[in-house]
């Protein structure tokens, strides 16, 4: 039997279905990951909402991530709310968050 999960942003407007097993779940202390977590948290705070941060509890200088095989990820709803950004012009890849609730 394959593992199956549904994950959503805080308000539920963006939802993904995940199949299979995650690849890894590291805590990252690199500047990009920590800066990205603070960026999304600050957007939520500015909007007057409480964010479920990916910053490690008790450590604002580490971000928790989960890596899933792309073949096991399906966007169920909310594509219009996914906002992509780059931390710097030369960043290797864009990051994203749900603009509906800033999570």
Written description of the protein model:
There is one protein chain. With 103 residues, the chain is α+β, with helices and mostly antiparallel strands. It has one helix spanning 31-46, and strands at 4-8, 15-19, 27-28, 55-56, 59-64, 73-77, 82-85, 95-98. The strands form 3 sheets. A 3-stranded antiparallel β-sheet has the order 1-2-6, with no helix packed on it. The termini are far apart. The mean pLDDT is 86.
Q: Give me the side-by-side strand order of the main sheet.
A: 1-2-6
Count of helical regions: 1
Helix fraction, binned, reads 10-25%
What distance separates the N and C termini?
Answer: 31 Å
Kindly state the number of beta strands.
8
Shape: globular
Overall residue-averaged pLDDT value: 86
Output the helix-strand order. EEEHEEEEE
Strand content: 25-35%
* Gyration radius from CA atoms, angstroms: 14 Å
| Structural classification | alpha+beta
**Uncertain stretches:** none
Q: Sketch the major β-sheet.
A: 3 strands, antiparallel
What can be said about this structure in brief?
This protein is an alpha+beta fold and 103 residues long. The protein has one helix and eight strands. It has one helix at 31-46, and strands spanning 4-8, 15-19, 27-28, 55-56, 59-64, 73-77, 82-85, 95-98.
Question: What descriptive keywords fit this protein?
Answer:
globular, 16% helix, 103 residues, alpha+beta, 1 helix
SSE order and pairing:
Blueprint: E1 4-8, E2 15-19, E3 27-28, H1 31-46, E4 55-56, E5 59-64, E6 73-77, E7 82-85, E8 95-98
